[in-house]
Design brief:
Elements (H helix, E strand, L loop, with lengths): L1 H25 L3 H29 L1 H20 L7 H30 L2 H17 L3 H10 L5 H4 L1 H14 L13 H24 L4 H20 L16 H30 L5 H29 L1 H22 L9 H24 L6 H40 L5 H18 L10 H39 L25
Helix pairs in contact: 1-2, 1-4, 1-5, 1-6, 1-8, 2-3, 2-4, 2-9, 2-15, 3-4, 3-8, 4-15, 5-12, 5-14, 6-12, 9-10, 9-15, 11-12, 11-14, 11-15, 11-17, 12-13, 12-14, 13-14, 13-17, 14-15, 15-16, 15-17
């Protein structure tokens, strides 16, 4: 199962490295390329809950195989995109179906792993699962840079051998398929897909449309309204897509909240740290990937440690430790960003990664352990939906913080060099959009006074970007601090299966 989901983690990051080559060869706009990236994440957000429910209804093995096939066929078609007018539409459609395949595959794969291990051994097993698969996110840029030197299409085709091995291993593992003879809640699936997809779209496009745009708020508020309708209708549905009774378990709710605040940092840190490395540290894409390895080394080590704590003492100690360690790590890392030294930052990057590592596996495992009637796929779908939604919110909020801070710093830098205020604001907007969108730190060309000033100011602008990123990393520290407050509310038990308050108690045995 780790081999099967490897593709989905690598694919979240590998495309961004090849983006300039894809734009150049296919003649796409930068906004068009952003849709290619977002289509995958949108589909993930929209269909995770459906994937988890289908794993319960159809059996996890069938859904793993179906998700893998959808994912790899879509990957091949993405790599075969023709040049011309239909290139953008082609890529967006098949990136979205890739996301659908991943949304089916991941909850089903995790449900398989959960079902194999008893509760007392589950923490260590899922720590290994999350540690390795999470660390694979860092492999995307390295692999992407190497493959793009040959052809950018190879970043999609590389999924083919991985999928073939995953399908062979799935067949050899002889996974049992426990199915449920229940109908699929189509209404609920449509509501949550629309609600999640539209609200995530609003967050994704906030940096483009602006937070003062009616379209941004129409998507966010409209999506949340649809999710509220879903919340109201699900308890009245005989066989709901998501059994919301699981949220009556306080520990499950706490686990979900801690995951939400942890994911506000975990996924966004990849984007912001890699662009920071390329802009402020003048690193190549491959060097930026190595920079991120410091974070993932801490993450991988702490994941195993957190799994052992969960098995012995429950989720609460691991989550509290992770939130404290992560908040301190991100805060110290933020303070070192302006040193502009990659190697001096590694202890703090590793500490931040360790904090997330302590949280991720214990919180996810404890949540799954509280599944009602062993509905592992459904509960996994819930937690993955929350994680993906938090990542979208984090990217939007931190992206806005970075853009505003960077713009203010560049304006100050240019004005102190004699550039008129109106010109400084215009140039600052262009610079901010370029480097926050693509990690572009190329020296401007031209012989005009503004271009000359820009060339002279490039070192200062690199520092401006580092200072702007400090606000982002401090924001991640704050998110984990809030996660710590949530973790304090965890009851501290080991998390056996709980019976909802409305459930019918088992009949008592006759006396005598």
């Amino acid at each position: 199962m780790m081999f099967a989901v490897a593709m989905t983690f690598i694919d979240q990051t590998i495309v961004s490295i090849a983006a300039p080559d894809i734009v150049s060869e296919l003649g796409l706009s930068s906004s068009g390329m952003q849709w290619v990236v977002n289509a995958y994440l949108l589909a993930l957000a929209a269909f995770f809950a459906l994937g988890g429910r289908l794993a319960d209804l159809w059996g996890p093995r069938r859904v793993v195989v179906a998700g893998t096939l959808i994912f790899v066929i879509s990957s091949v078609l993405c790599g075969c995109v023709p040049t011309g007018d239909y290139a953008l539409t082609w890529l967006i459609v098949f990136r979205a179906t890739q996301g659908l395949g991943a949304a089916l595959l991941f909850p089903a794969a995790l449900a398989v792993v959960v079902a194999v291990f008893p509760v007392e051994r589950r923490g260590r097993a899922l720590a290994l699962f999350f540690g390795i698969t999470g660390a694979l996110t860092a492999l995307g840029p390295l692999l992407g840079g190497w493959l793009t030197d040959w052809t950018w299409r190879a970043i999609f085709w590389v999924n083919v051998p991985v999928a073939l091995v995953a399908l062979i291993l799935t067949a050899l593992a002889r996974i049992s398929d426990r199915r449920r003879d229940e109908p699929l809640d189509v209404r609920g699936a449509l509501l949550i897909a629309v609600g999640m997809g539209v609200s995530v779209l609003g967050f994704q496009q906030a940096s483009v449309w602006g937070w003062d745009s009616a379209a941004t708020w129409a998507c966010i508020v409209g999506g949340l309204a649809v999710l509220y309708v879903f919340r109201r209708l699900e308890p009245r549905t005989r066989h709901p897509l998501v059994d919301l009774a699981v949220f009556r378990d306080r520990a499950f709710t706490v686990d979900t909240l801690v995951l939400f605040f942890a994911m506000l940092a975990f996924v966004p840190v990849f984007f912001f740290a890699s662009v920071y490395a390329q802009v402020s540290l003048s690193a190549s894409p491959n060097q930026a990937a190595l920079y991120l390895l410091y974070f993932f080394v801490g993450f991988a080590v702490a994941s195993q440690w957190g799994g052992r704590i969960l098995d012995k003492r429950g989720a609460r100690p691991a989550m509290k430790t992770g939130c404290v360690v992560g908040a301190v790590g991100f805060a110290l890392w933020a303070g070192k960003l302006t040193d502009l030294s990659m190697h001096d930052q590694w202890p703090y990057a590793a500490l931040a990664g360790a904090g997330i590592g302590f949280i991720l596996a214990p919180a996810s495992t404890d949540a799954v352990n509280r599944a009602i009637d062993a509905s592992y796929g459904e509960v996994t779908g819930i937690t993955q939906t929350v994680r993906n939604y938090a990542a979208s919110v984090g990217l939007a909020v931190y992206g806005t913080m970075l853009t505003h801070s960077m713009n203010d710093h560049v304006v100050d830098t240019l004005e102190t060099r004699g550039v008129p205020s109106d010109t400084a604001h215009s140039v600052a907007r262009d610079v901010t959009q370029a480097i926050t969108g693509n990690g572009d730190a190329r020296t401007p060309t031209g012989t005009g006074p503004v271009a000359t000033t820009m060339r002279d100011a490039m070192s200062a602008i690199r520092m401006d970007f580092a200072e702007a990123n400090q606000w982002v990393f401090y924001g991640m520290a704050v998110a984990l601090a809030i996660g710590f407050l949530c973790a304090l509310r965890h009851p501290g038990d080991h998390g056996g299966r709980t019976i909802p308050e409305t459930a019918t108690p088992p009949p008592s045995l006759p006396q005598g």
